[in-house]
Amino acid sequence: MEDLWLQRRVKALTVRQQDHRSPFQRDRARILHSAAFRRLQSKTQVMGSGQSDFYRTRLTHSLEAAQIGSGIVAQLRSKFPEDAKRLMPKEDALIESICLAHDIGHPPFGHGGEVALNYMMRQHGGFEGNGQTLRIVSTLEPFSEHHGMNLSRRTLLGLLKYPQTIENLQKAELTPEPNHFRQLKAADWHPPKGIYADDISVLDWILEPLSEADRIEFQRCRETKGGHLKTQFKSLDCSIMELADDIAYGIHDLEDAIVTHIVQQKDFERHVIEKLKSSEDEWVRIYANTLADKLFSDKHHLQKDAIGGLVNYLITSIALEQVEGVNGYQFEEPLLKYNAKLPPHAMQVLQIFKDFVFDFVIKQTSIQRIEYRGQQLVMELFEALISDPLRLLPKNTAKRYLDAQNNNKNAYRVIADYVAGMTDEYATRLYQTLFIPSNGSYRDPNS
């Protein structure tokens, strides 16, 4: 009997001769060769793409996450050989696929673009980066006629960080709308983390192998303080990807901020080193004694050594743990029964770095101003395109918009797909074309 987790929504139209790749190697190839993946090279990670040739982009971040994901899998195979043999493929293509694809749904200008699209789509199903990732791989990328990259079910399960629809996660009370979107407060319009109602058939297909009890528990939500509901559980593969993503963000992205002098050593010592020195882990306390001097040294090999030591510490701390549902529920499906997790002391170390990057980099006024500018640009583009879609959209996108209208589907989602797919540079050029007369000569090659 065929493994249900290896199935695809449609069988291949052609069988290629002597193709000996595993299903997950095929998935990885489709992701690497997709337009959505290539566009990550010009999408904001922490600092704006194009501001410097040093800064990480969504592309380099995804490559680093894939490498870390492979390292995590290697650790789990070493520490838990019998469980790993039963739960994981023999090669790393699965986790690499998931890590490479995890950010392809993020729109231009980072979270500023996400907030902008969520606001513009507030009456039409909302917008959220993880939901857009699932939509791209399962519907939009043209590797199949209707099912996107047509990835294997297990790869899609690994990308499913939040297995609920946005509508089921939205807080009940409505956020007061501003008089004009220039007055929009980003904190009021961060979307719930989930998928779109437009893609419910994809979610149903992914979760089809689960028992009814497993599915109910897997999709269970909890309240968050002052915010939307949030799902509680992830698959094994997704838990590995999320750890790889967090390590790449908390440790590797910090390197950008240090080398480009965004953060100062005195702030790092006060808000990171002092906390690390109180860790219950002796290795961390000892490592903290020389960490700041290495990271802020003008000898780059010392910086790389310090970063590598931190990443290795986190990866080698990760363990395989059984997941317990609410009220002691035990999942039947092995891919839900186990997660990769950091022990509390290592998780605390990673959180210290993530908090520092957020407070001293992401929230820095200069970066927030750039994010605000991108937020405004995205909303103005959306407003212009929706005013006369058949006139302003490229031909293929205009056809999709018309098809959605004629078939009682969500035509606004087509506009969101188009804007979300733009790179920072493309969105800026299109804005100049539409609103700045001196740049009106730009011609969209896709039109």
Textual characterization of the structure:
Helix 3 (58-79) runs antiparallel to helix 5 (93-101) and helix 12 packs across helix 17 (344-362). The relative contact order is 0.13. The protein is mainly α and 447 residues long. Helices cover 57% and strands 3% of the residues. The radius of gyration is 22 Å and the shape is globular. The chain contains 22 helices and four strands.
What is the topological layout?
Blueprint: H1 23-32, H2 35-39, H3 58-79, H4 81-87, H5 93-101, H6 110-120, H7 129-140, H8 153-159, H9 166-169, H10 200-206, H11 212-218, E1 221-222, E2 230-231, H12 236-259, H13 265-276, H14 282-295, H15 300-317, E3 319-322, H16 334-337, E4 338-341, H17 344-362, H18 365-387, H19 389-392, H20 395-406, H21 411-420, H22 424-435
Antiparallel strand pairs: 1-2, 3-4
Helix pairs in contact: 1-5, 3-4, 3-5, 3-12, 5-8, 5-12, 6-18, 8-12, 12-15, 12-17, 13-14, 13-17, 18-21, 18-22, 20-21
Rg computed from alpha carbons, rounded to a whole number of angstroms:
22 Å
Largest sheet: 2 strands, antiparallel
Distance between the termini: 47 Å
How would you write the strand order of the largest sheet?
1-2
Beta-strand proportion: under 5%
Uncertain parts: 48-53
Give a count of the beta strands, DSSP E runs of length 2 or more: 4
Mean pLDDT: 91
Structural class: mainly alpha
- SSE order: HHHHHHHHHHHEEHHHHEHEHHHHHH
- Which of globular, elongated, flat, extended, rod-shaped describes the shape? globular
What is the helical fraction, as a range of percent? Answer: 55-70%
Q: Number of helix segments?
A: 22
